Amino acid sequence: MQIHYLNTDLDIAAPVDLELLVVAFKSTGICSLQRGKRENGDWWGILETNKSYDDPESNIAAMLTVIEQLDEPELKIWQTLTCCEFNIGYDSGTEPWGFNQGLSHELLQRITKVGASVRFTLYPPEL
Q1: Strand, coil or helix: what is 10?
Q2: Are the C-beta atoms of residues 44 and 13 closer than 8 Å to each other?
Q3: Residues 78-87: what's their mean pLDDT?
Q4: Lowest mean pLDDT segment, chosen from 2-6, 21-25, 95-99
Q5: Pick the residue with more confidence: 127 or 18?
Q6: Do residues 125 and 1 touch, judged by C-beta distance below 8 A?
Q7: Confidence grade of residue 97 (pLDDT, cut at 50, 70, 90)
Q8: What is the maximal distance between C-alpha atoms in the chain?
Q9: Nearest CA among 73, 62, 60, 59 for reference residue 22
Q10: What is the pLDDT of residue 127?
Q11: What residues make up the domain containing 93?
Q12: CA–CA separation, 41 vs 47, rounded Å?
């Protein structure tokens, strides 16, 4: 099985309802996969782009463009986030022997500027 990039989710959580933020994202092609309210009262959501990308750099850049253009009401919600992670997913496998993808320093600067972090998820090959 080939190692390959799957997609990047944007995982968010806040002490306030995320509905207005989710609606703003949806209008730009970023959909909500799941969302809800935790027992502690925090709201959470998992978002991803409707478009498929070949690498995390392009995928995250597309989401950052939306985040960087949020209007004031959505920006106020964004600023309350207690969790904001770009979760990069890969199917792992046995080939090729070496596999890598990177994030440019320009993208990393944009990620930190909006207060986000990066997480990696590796999914094992199905046996």
Answers
A1: strand
A2: yes
A3: 97
A4: 95-99
A5: 18
A6: yes
A7: confident
A8: 48
A9: 73
A10: 58
A11: 4-123
A12: 20
- Residue 5, CA distances (Å) to 21, 24, 44, 61, 93 in order: 27, 26, 24, 15, 11
Give CA–CA dist 69/14, Å, rounded: 20
- Report the alpha-carbon angle 96-118-52, nearest 5: 60
Q: Could you tell me if 91 and 1 are in contact, meaning their C-beta atoms sit under 8 angstroms apart?
A: yes
pLDDT at residue 36, as a whole number: 93
Would you say residue 8 has pLDDT above 90? yes
Q: Tokens 């996969």 identify what position?
A: 33
Report the C-alpha gap between 15 and 24 in whole angstroms: 18
Domain count, the chain: 1
Structure tokens at 41: 């009262």
Question: Residue 114's CB: how many other CB atoms inside 10 A?
Answer: 16
